[in-house]
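step=encode ok
step=design start
structure_in=
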C-alpha cells in the first residue's frame, strides 16, 4: 500500500496560511471579478489574473497578521476546558 508522504509538522505554520489565503482569495476575487465583468468570457480570462495577484499579496500579509489575530482571539476568548 502506498502511503502519502507528508510535510514535517514544523511547516504547518506556513501551510495553513498558504491554503487559507488561496481559498479566501479564490472566493473573494471570483465574486469581485464576476460582479464587475459579469458571466462573460472576460470573467474567465480575468479571474485567474485577479486571483494570482490577490494570493501573491494575501499570503505574506496573512503570515504577518495571523499571530496578531491569535493574540487578539486569546484576549477575547476564554481558554477551552
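sequence_out=
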Amino acid at each position: 500500500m502506498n502511503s502519502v508522504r507528508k510535510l514535517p509538522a514544523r511547516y504547518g505554520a506556513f501551510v495553513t496560511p498558504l491554503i487559507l489565503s488561496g481559498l479566501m482569495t479564490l472566493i473573494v476575487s471570483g465574486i469581485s471579478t464576476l460582479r464587475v465583468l459579469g458571466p462573460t468570457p472576460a470573467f474567465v480570462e480575468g479571474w485567474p489574473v485577479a486571483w494570482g495577484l490577490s494570493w501573491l499579496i494575501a499570503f505574506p500579509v496573512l503570515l504577518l497578521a495571523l499571530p496578531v489575530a491569535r493574540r487578539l482571539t486569546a484576549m477575547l476568548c476564554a481558554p477551552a476546558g
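step=design ok
step=annotate ok -> The helical segments are 12-37, 41-76.
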